Amino acid sequence: MPLVNRPAVVSFTLVDASGSRSQATANLIGGILLTDARTAAQALATAVEAASDCTVESYAITFPTVETQPVAPALNSRVEKKGRIQFRTSAGKVYTFTVPGIVNSVVLASGQIDEDLALITGITLALLASPWSDSNGATLDQVIGAYERFDSTSKGQLPSSRRAD
Amino acid sequence: MAHAPAALVIIAYRDASDSIGYTRLWLATGSVDVARAAVATRIGVLGALSGCAVTGYSITWSTHLSDVPAPGPQLVSTAGIFIWQTATADAYAVTYIPGINATMLDATDPAGLAINTQKLEVINYIAVLRDGAFVNPFEYDITALENAFVQFEP
Description:
The complex is a heterodimer of chains A (165) and B (154). Chain A has 165 residues and is an alpha+beta fold. Chain A has helices at residues 34-51, 118-128; strands spanning 3-5, 8-15, 21-28, 55-67, 81-89, 94-100, 132-133, 140-150. Chain A has two domains: 3-67; 81-150, no CATH class. Classes of the chains: A alpha+beta (165), B alpha+beta (154). Strand 4 (55-67) of chain A pairs antiparallel with strand 4 of chain B, so a sheet runs across the interface.
């Protein structure tokens, strides 16, 4: 199961006078530090904006990693069957962590997830530790609930009534 | 310029029906190595919690620019296309400049379609792409501009 790092991608969002938005992307060398990537992205943003009538609003630098030999999914596994674990953040807000295709062994008959199982504490204790946070950078302070929920995920999902071939 | 306070981590899964699902998390760190290490140690736990197969993940840091100037008249659909040579023969890179300014276009040959590579703004753009940090998607270093032209995209 090798996880392979791919070149980083910087994606600029530009807006024109009509309010329409478009993307301009470029790849960055592998192993680049975030500070160096930001410096290169800022230089490119300046150069793009000088040659364009559009305004660069923002940019995002993404470091992708791909599994080149993924294991086979379990028979009848469904990404729509989600385990959701909710945390209270240090800012008093709620952050929900989602695991697609949650295994049945951690779900109780009530639909709750057994928070005392080692499989669950393994993930909750890790997320309660730095550097995990919510989108505003607030730390996750306590688990306030965990349950199973069926949810839609992708446009390509199969209908829920589909039976295994 | 304002950096987002946390990096977005997206972990991708594939189930038995080939549908794709995601877990979204955030990391309050400015280090790629720290972020990758934190994610890598969680992948195994998530793999045990899910019947789906983890197919990869991405870590994204976002930056919003402040004091942005008002856009000019050109729309984003008028894009400048730049095709680049790389350090590997027959492997190219392509970059776009949405809403390329009309003054960047070559007035002679072919008029209004080619990009004038002698314009200072275009020279600067070429120099930034060739500075060593930028590569094509296969990580081949961008070395020289092959061609540049305008393309209208819906």
